[in-house]
Amino acid sequence: MSLPVFPIISPDKGVQRQVLSEAPELMVVSFRFEAGAEGKLHSHPHVQSTYVARGRFRFIRGNEAYELAAGDSLVIPGNVTHGCECLEEGELIDCFTPRREDFL
Q1: Burial zone of 5 (CB within 10 Å; 0-12 exposed, 13-18 middle, 19+ buried)
Q2: CA 33 to CA 14: how far, in whole Å?
Q3: Each residue's pLDDT tens digit, 27-79
Q4: Annotated domain spans of the chain
Q5: Statement: the pTM of the whole predicted model exceeds 0.90
Q6: For the chain, which end, N or C, has fewer CB atoms within 10 Å of the first or last residue's CB respectively?
Q7: Is 17-103 a CATH 2.60.120.10 domain?
Q8: Rounded to an integer, what is the distance from CA 11 to the centroid of its chain?
Q9: What residues contact 67, with CB distance under 8 A and at least 6 apart?
């Protein structure tokens, strides 16, 4: 049995997104960013964890700002406005619970 391979899509300029694995309760997603690319401010009902696999990012979570580098992580509660700017080309591994149906 082979695992499904999900397509790579470009939701915004300089950003590539690929679902790595998913189940109704959890989804793991890779986001690859070019330097200067942004994850625009948004919110969703899902709890999200973000792990910086490589690169440097400036995150906004609610009214707080954070600068994260490879090895750092951040949890974003559901319905909290958040976004990021890529300061140095990199990749984020995000987990969502429950899964993001809109990414399938």
Answers
A1: exposed
A2: 6
A3: 999 999 999 999 999 999 999 999 999 999 999 999 999 999 999 999 999 99
A4: 17-103
A5: yes
A6: N
A7: yes
A8: 11
A9: 56, 57, 58, 59, 87
